[in-house]
Specification:
Elements lengths: L14 H20 L4 H10 L4 H11 L1 H10 L8 H23 L3 H20 L1 H11 L8 H17 L4 H12 L4 H26 L4 H22 L4 H22 L1
Helix pairs in contact: 1-2, 1-4, 1-11, 2-3, 3-10, 3-11, 4-10, 4-11, 5-8, 5-10, 6-12, 7-9, 8-9, 8-10, 9-10
Length: about 260
């Protein structure tokens, strides 16, 4: 990894920082299991406690991995009968994730700082558009169960590359792709999205642990609460108004993007 070593960095976390990261991890895990976009919270939280953008990005990916597992466990009933989809599309996600992580590894810190605000805005736009995507998916009804063929495998590879490179709103991107190319109910596609997101993030996390500046103190604060949030996020998502949570995350993410543009 150019100019860095795993675990490097001079940030010392105080009690307030740990509390902030733990609370953020819980909410981010819940958001990821329900819809996607949790990195819009964990990434700026890591920036707020003092980590550089590139370090915050890779640390966020590693720290939120347990949250995806919690979401998958919560969606087990909806995953019944989707083994072949998981194998086919999961392979595409894994290959794309390796490519995305490798691309991030050769991206200079200066270039990454310039790109990050645009990626945050893109993630916000994806998250904001989710209600329209969801209504379109529901209007399709239950169709023949298929896997989208080669087009969906290629699309999953693209999504995996995006997820490893930045990752915010990966779930929203995946749900849109699955809804376009795979016929099934929204809940089952959302469950499938969770498994594919888990694969992408765990592959990227393995790469980052080996080569990237992962900050383990922050991971220790974020990861346990993200697991709990991911497990409960499925239940919460079925009971709370999604539009309120979505609006808060989009507004927060947009504010972060503006801050990054101004800070340069």
């Amino acid at each position: 990894w150019p100019g860095t070593r795993a675990g490097a960095g001079g940030v010392t976390l105080g009690a307030g920082d740990v509390a902030l990261l733990a609370g953020t991890g819980f909410v981010a895990g819940a958001i990821n299991s329900a819809a996607g976009g949790g990195s819009l919270l964990s990434f700026p939280a890591l920036l707020a406690v003092g980590y550089p953008a590139l370090d915050a990005n890779v640390t966020s990916t590693v720290a939120l991995c347990p949250g995806y597992l919690g979401g998958v466990v919560g969606y087990r009933p909806e995953l019944a009968g989707q083994r072949l989809r998981v194998v086919r599309l999961g392979a595409g996600m894994a290959l794309g994730s390796v490519a995305g992580a490798a691309l991030l590894a050769v991206t200079s810190r200066g270039l990454f700082r310039a790109i990050v605000p645009w990626l945050v805005l893109l993630a916000c736009a994806l998250l904001a558009a989710q209600p329209w995507v969801a209504r379109w998916l529901e209007a399709r009804g239950i169709g023949q169960h298929h896997h989208g063929g080669a087009a969906m495998v290629l699309a999953s590879a693209f999504a995996g590359a995006y997820g490893a490179y930045f990752g915010a709103a990966l779930g929203v991107l995946l749900l849109g792709l699955l809804g376009t190319l795979v016929a099934d109910t929204l809940q089952r596609l959302n469950a499938l999205k969770g498994v594919l997101s888990l694969i992408a993030n765990w592959v990227a996390a393995a790469f980052f642990i080996a080569f990237a500046p992962v900050h383990w103190g922050a991971v220790a604060a974020l990861a346990p609460s993200s697991l709990l949030g991911g497990r409960l996020g499925v239940v919460v998502a079925r009971r709370l108004p999604d539009h309120v949570l979505r609006a808060v995350v989009v507004a927060f993410g947009t504010g972060v993007a503006i801050y990054l543009f101004v800070k340069g």
